[in-house]
Request: fold
Amino acid sequence: MEMHQVRYFLAVCDAWNFTRAAEACHVAQPSLTKAIRKLEDEFGGPLFHRHRNKTILTELGHRVRPHLQALQSASEAARLDASSFLEAERSAIRLGVMSTIAPTRMTGFLSRLRDELPALELEVTEAPSRDLVQAMEEGRFDAALLAAPSLPEGLHAVPLYRERYVLAFPQGHPFSDRNDVPLGLLDGQDYLTRVHCEFPDHFRALGAAEPKGGQVRYSSEREDWVQAMVAAGLGCTIMPEYLPTHEGISTRPLSEPEVTRTVALVTVAGRRHGPALTAMLRLAKRYPWSGG
Reply:
């Protein structure tokens, strides 16, 4: 049995006429008739009674019709699924990434995404958290990697991984002898402010008393500058534990209180997702983030 035979059979069922069925299928009537006869030979009996002005199903035709309809539906579903897959491969995703998220935590996920959608075009734009939230609401990104203690009601988050905040300091600093650093020990320390750091938001979400903090000596919106200055012994800074990349930096978890954040893949709630973004969200939910 071939799919065109199934299609011709169902066309005759709908039109009740071989001529009109052939016209609907854009084939010559002899070709359609020949295909139906081959189908009848395969089933072992006539499928239609042909009268002068009308064609009706035989009892055998009635019996096989639902099976052939299911076969055509399955074939169409397979075609649509394949089409969606190919469309996803050709699609692009505009991904906003919060500037304090470490790329090293994402590369394994992106490699897996490339394996599943080899032709995907991924446009990554870095921005501060507040700018990303606004851009998402305005539709300028399809998705965003964010770590915020709360999000506007119109945004939906898929949690990916949790990380602690740590104190980063130059190697050889007295903090190196500790397993963790209570926040109160920053009092009097030279401190470097990371302009786009969202640590204060997460700290306030705990409801803890505001610390005095260190003596601010420098501030920069560039993570590489802050880390280079820490490594050069110009002060210490608070940052997410997976962010430090500069040689010469040591870190210890903050304590009293411990402060953490959850990195999430964020989309706009209720907005229709294309095949590529749908595939990305599915992978994000099953990807083993705990393995790094």
Summary: The longest strand covers residues 155-170.
